[in-house]
Amino acid sequence: MSTLVDRHASRENPTAPPKPDMSARDILAAAETLVPMLKERAVEIDANRRIPDDVYRAVQEAGLLHVLKPKKYHGLELTEHEHAKVAMTLARGCASTAWVFSILSSDNMAVLSFPEETQDEIWGDDSYATLAGNTNLNLKASTSRVPGGYRLSGSWGFCSGSDFSEWLIFNAPVGEAGEGHMFIVPAADAETVDDWTPTGLRGTGSRTKVVRDVFVPDHRVMRTADTVDKIQERRGLHPTFDAMYAPWPSYGRFTFAGVGVGAAMGAAEDFAATAGSTSRVANALGGTLRLTDQDYVATEYAEITGELEMARRLIEFRSREASDLAHQRVVLDEAQLAEQVRDNSLVARVALRAAQRLQMIVGAKAGFPQHSASRAKRDAELVASHVTLNWRQASVRYMSAMVNG
């Protein structure tokens, strides 16, 4: 496995920032052009549990990692609407690549909660630098106050995108009360535990990262509870960047759910492209049946694609709505937030059901990991399991907001 040092050393000419006049249409077109290549590489990515360097570089050079980045650091300052649509598009080719894109782009917003000194340190010399890690509080981690900062030790799993990130963010307890604080450390200061062997999203590189007695200066440490206030304070640094006016964490950011929908859509596309020449065993005594001759296949496929189209449209509607509200500097109330949370979780749930049903109409052939229906089902399962997409929690919150609002 190559390292960040290897990868940077192999760059004879550092990648230039994307053109500052790239439009939303340009970005979406760039994402679309990557889909055929991602479809070709998806089996390899799934099997190797890692995105190849050249695939990640293609995402970089397309300008996609600059969608949610301020103009000061050569970002495009596009909206959460484009962010969600790019993730959904990439996922039609490879859900793991789309997930890494969505995580690393979303984590740009975490960087923006830190002081200008920290932002300059991360992006001043390399606008392509990214932040990965895990912002869930690890009570087993240890911190100690020292002059100018802290010493940090601990391990954090599920660090999606960390194969490529120059920086990592971790949440660790500080002081006698054990209050959570965010720590940003160079990726070079962390060790990797190769423990990412899930059923789905296998290429995301969401491995455990370990730091041992690493010094973290004060400007890269922030009390977790202060995140919202700090983002609001930093708005003056990037006054034209609307995404900084979205709620934190941004419930309008449909990128995670969009990965599940895109994965199922991609598998449905593959099914349509091959169904005419595909058969399955007729019954236990043998024989074959053409899939396209079966009424149940037609009705299932029509319903699957119809529901995915509704999910796609809901993602696009909600993400555009959220972007418009951020542009208007509107502060959402609990009922609005709960409704967004509900729909965000709902589309992930729809995508999972669609992928499961698609695998069933394909038959036993979809049980092999190389089949796109198998990959879509496994990827959609992992997406729907994410903490931000918990359907039951979203439902309870929505009911409470409706009853008590």
Automatic annotation (TrEMBL):
It comes from the Bacteria. InterPro entries: Acyl-CoA_dehydrogenase, Acyl-CoA_DH_C, Acyl-CoA_Oxase/DH_mid-dom_sf, AcylCoA_DH/ox_N, AcylCoA_DH/ox_N_sf, AcylCoA_DH/oxidase_NM_dom_sf. One of its GO terms (cellular component) is cytoplasm. The keyword S-adenosyl-L-methionine does not apply. Residues 37-121 form the Acyl-CoA dehydrogenase/oxidase N-terminal domain. Keywords: Oxidoreductase. The keyword Transmembrane helix does not apply. One of its GO terms (biological process) is fatty acid beta-oxidation using acyl-CoA dehydrogenase. Residues 255-390 form the Acyl-CoA dehydrogenase C-terminal domain. GO terms for molecular function: acyl-CoA dehydrogenase activity; flavin adenine dinucleotide binding; oxidoreductase activity, acting on paired donors, with incorporation or reduction of molecular oxygen, reduced flavin or flavoprotein as one donor, and incorporation of one atom of oxygen. Residues 1-23 are annotated as: Disordered. Residues 1-11 have a biased composition (Basic and acidic residues). Belongs to the HpaH/HsaA monooxygenase family. This is 3-hydroxy-9,10-secoandrosta-1,3,5(10)-triene-9,17-dione monooxygenase. It comes from Microbacterium caowuchunii.
